[in-house]
Design goal:
- It is a single chain.
- By secondary structure, this protein is α+β, with helices and mostly antiparallel strands.
- The chain has three domains: about 5-105, 3-Layer(aba) Sandwich (Rossmann fold); about 130-200, ATP-grasp fold, A domain (Dna Ligase, domain 1, 2-Layer Sandwich); about 205-445, ATP-grasp fold, B domain (D-amino Acid Aminotransferase, Chain A, domain 1, 2-Layer Sandwich), CATH 3.30.470.20.
- About 35% of the residues lie in helices and about 25% in strands.
- The strands form six sheets. It has an eight-stranded antiparallel β-sheet, with helices on both faces.
Length: about 450
């Protein structure tokens, strides 16, 4: 087992990894920016080392500084969390060259799944169904010709990257040129790769993802699925497991095919396969995230599995202690992402000082957060402040528990999305489990957004 692990991340996920290390008896060191010098993860880590100024490009994305910090602190491994360098193949390769274990999949498999077009082709070869799509497109002329073949409406997506950037719904031919050009400029700046591809658009599709774990001996399991259909601008705001209205037989089929696919491509560690499910319950592979997901706690709650612990064990070369037929799926879990955004003002990002912080409690309530009273929310990073997760025996009980927990949650001094989630959890469509990827847009008036 590792002696010391560096956490190359910040916020609630850094704190989550620190806690897993503590419980496993592993020393930890956090690499942090100047802006995060007074953060809770820095205060609680066994060691900490500054890797640059507040801007992420000079700190959390600065590979030379992070590797230098890892060598200075003499760590055995680096956990990248999610975001930043978690899916950066160059970083994984450099870690290997420096004899530091990257807690995640190999750089080669990460690169395979990181190119969305190649990932589609690879997963089709191992038996997963795809929506009609295109190869990589780099010119407007190529895009126009491909769009004519697929037909409208269609989705325009970036070959590289994530976080919702570069994704556009194109409803009509007369808007294609404008949307294509805008998306290409966006992804060129964000990912230094202007490659795009087209995919047929599904109306009222559900976004379903399957959590997998595979050890270095090729033994893998899936830990069920999560429904991530509540999205705004292609960014998830609420997740739950199991997915409402998904037949049990279909749930088993998607999980079985997902684990078969990742075993076939030689995947190792934790990963998530994302699917779209149409109104006839036909499902189509979209992409694979080769890292821990923000929403991993809902899976942990229904399976009693510590995913971060399993990631570390796999990276250390230990075999999975889980067998598929031994995994028990119990109850229902829901996660609300509480962000520093003003939902009454087009979700405009907020900064400021947290004057009062009182998280909810009680049976079946979990809060993953790096907040404390007096904490100053910096302007440089993602707006996620906390993840509120609840578990109960049934979905109905979980919704009631989440409503209660949201009503208890106090964050003063900065505007958050707690009021938005309170409205969403009381919306009749959500209560009936009728969410889809356009749900928030179509119900914007009812939700007050």
């Amino acid at each position: 087992m590792f002696r010391k692990i560096m956490i190359a991340n910040r916020g609630e996920i850094a704190l989550r990894i620190i806690r897993a290390c503590r419980e496993m008896g592993i020393r930890n060191v956090i690499a942090h920016s100047e802006a995060d010098r007074d953060s809770l993860p820095v205060r609680l880590a066994d060691e900490h080392i500054c890797i640059g100024p507040g801007a992420s490009g000079k700190s959390y994305l600065n590979i030379p500084n992070i590797i230098s910090a890892a060598l200075i602190t003499n760590v055995d491994a680096i956990h990248p969390g999610y975001g930043f360098l978690a899916e950066n193949t160059s970083f994984a390769e450099i870690c290997a060259d420096a004899n530091i274990t990257f807690i995640g999949p190999s750089a080669s498999v990460m690169a395979l799944m990181g190119d969305k077009v190649v990932a589609r082709e690879t997963m089709a070869e191992v038996g997963l169904q795809m929506l009609p799509g295109t190869p990589i497109l780099r010119t407007l002329a190529e895009g126009i010709e491909a769009a004519r073949e697929i037909g409208f409406p269609l989705m325009l997506k970036a070959v590289a990257g994530g976080g919702g950037r570069g994704i556009r719904l194109v409803k009509r031919a007369d808007e294609f040129e404008r949307v294509f050009t805008t998306a290409q400029n966006e992804v060129r700046e964000a990912f230094r790769d202007d490659g795009l591809y087209l995919e047929r658009y599904l109306e009222h599709a559900r976004h379903i993802e399957v959590q997998v774990l595979v050890d270095n001996f090729g033994h893998g399991v899936h830990l069920g699925e999560r429904n991530c259909s509540c999205q705004r601008r292609h960014q998830k705001v609420l997740e739950e497991s199991p997915s409402p209205l998904l037949p049990h037989e279909l749930r088993q089929e998607i999980g079985t095919k997902a684990i078969h696919a990742v075993e076939q491509i030689g995947y190792r560690n934790a990963g998530t396969l994302e699917f779209l499910v149409d109104e006839q319950n036909r499902y189509y592979f979209m992409e694979m995230n080769t890292r821990l997901q923000v929403e991993h706690p809902v899976t942990e709650m229904i399976t009693s599995t510590d995913l971060v612990r399993e990631q570390i064990r796999i990276a250390a070369g230990l075999p999975l202690q889980l067998e598929q037929d031994e995994i028990q799926f119990r109850g229902h879990a829901i996660e609300c992402r509480i962000t520093a955004e003003d939902s009454d003002n087009e979700f405009r990002p907020q900064t400021g000082v947290v004057e009062k912080y009182l998280p909810p409690g009680g049976p079946g309530v979990r809060v993953d957060s790096h907040l404390y009273a007096g904490y100053s929310v910096p302007p440089y990073y993602d707006s996620l402040l906390a993840k509120l997760i609840v578990w109960a025996d049934t979905r109905e009980a979980a919704i009631a528990r989440m409503q209660r927990a949201l009503d208890e949650f106090v964050i003063e001094g900065i505007v958050t999305t707690i009021p938005f989630h309170q409205r969403l959890l009381r919306h009749e469509g959500f209560i009936r489990g009728e969410t889809h990827t356009r749900f928030l847009q179509e119900e914007a008036v009812a939700l007050g957004i």
